[in-house]
# Entry
Amino acid sequence: MEQWPVYHGEVPDFLRDYLRLPMLRRLRDVGMNCGCEYTSFPRFRVLEPYSRFDHSVGVALIVWHFTGDAAQAVAGLLHDVATPVFAHVVDFMRGDYMNQEATEAGTEAMIAGFRELQALLERDGLATGDVCDYHRYPIADNDSPRLSADRLEYTLGNSVNFGLRSLNEVRRMYGDLAVGVNGEGQPELAFAHEALASDFADAALACSGIYVSDEDRYAMQRLSELLRRAVDRGILGEEDLYATEPEVVERLRSDADTAARWEAFRALRRIETAAMPGPEQGWRRIAAKKRCIDPLVLGRGRLSELSPSFAEALRDFRERSQDHWILGRP
# Structure
């Protein structure tokens, strides 16, 4: 992916062997936009391919760039290996709308049980416990609204993919970052200049709005219902959710019922909203997790403490209602 050179000049030699593992290669066919890119909604149908593999390598390179620590970089690389097809759609399928963490289950077991991976870890003087939980490394991951490598990568990647910022603008933001210390005494990626922190925060907030837009929430809910129907009818097994998206789509298309529902999902292109549902089938009221970032400015504090306008925009986003009913139409 073209963002990789922004994060680090090249992929370090020790990481290259990890990228060849089947568990990593599978992520080339698991998208970052949770199935929305398969719809006809104008916002999503023009997106460039952006996979969990792209994201994972990007996270690893960011972590390596700022820490030079192999354990942290590999933990960042492996953080999505247990991600199912369509990613957080499976959280929706399992009723985990608000936390969207159900898809993280199984990461440690997958890492521990993969012989080729274990051989690489042994070669590098690492163990499963060093790399199975990237949450233990604050530069790799931390609690929202802090900035971590994970949150940084998908924000920069989607800022370019959604057309919100150019690659050169993203490069300038990234070049302004360093490792600072937050108010809790933990290391955190922080901006040197408020202006670039503000530009990044505005782009991040725009991405956050897209992640919980009516189109996004409706598409994820409808696709989760289709996956549940396919599993219940035996078209898919639970294990198939950990295959690739092309393989799952082929299975859905192999059955007349799920094929028709898949094509109806693909045809979604516009949204209607209402305070109460209309008579048509398909109305949904869907709440979802709101992701946001309040970046740190070195030596000065969080942007929301420095910029009243950003603080207001962040508050408005957090308070935005998801109580209305929505209906997708072709």
Summary: Strands lie at 177-181, 187-191, 270-274, 296-297, 301-302, 325-329. DSSP finds 18 helices and six strands in the chain. The mean pLDDT is 95. The longest strand covers residues 177-181.
